[in-house]
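Issue 218. Parser rejects a valid record. Input:
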Amino acid sequence: PPPSPPAPPPACNGLASLAKVSLGACASLSLLPANERSKLGADAVAMLALSLAEAPGFRELNLAGNSIGDAGAASVAALLAKPSSIERVSLASNAIGDRGANAVADAAMKGGAPLVHLAMSGNRISDAALARLAAALAARPTPLCPSAAEAAVFTSCPTPGEAAGGAGGGA
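Output the parser choked on:
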């Protein structure tokens, strides 16, 4: 029989995993704060984004519940603007405003990362900035659409067959 394909890299949690991520030993990284004092700020996210830019096979970043603000969102946006393997990003509940959302929208228009999921809920984003972000994500070669449950969460748009209730699996 043919050899089995190698197992995908594991998911990693916490700052202690950062070295593993930069070496390609993790496909995802979740940095959820344990308490108010352990929240990541913009400077930490800027350094994280630099490390992740070189991480082979990295696919998912969860920074939900930190305090990265607009500057941290801009750092993640710079990462997303470059060609990479990043598919899923959560920036939910991070004190991000319009400037951060606009930075993510600008990055989305460049289409570097093959995103299939972006969570921006729980931030301070105006309706106008959210509409700009939605338009930028919808215009990508692989468009993202607002989820039915939450306007600031974007997922792969349904194919015409899925939208009409036809067969074709789901995302």
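Fixed in the parser; the record now loads. The CA atoms of residues 7 and 27 lie 11 Å apart.
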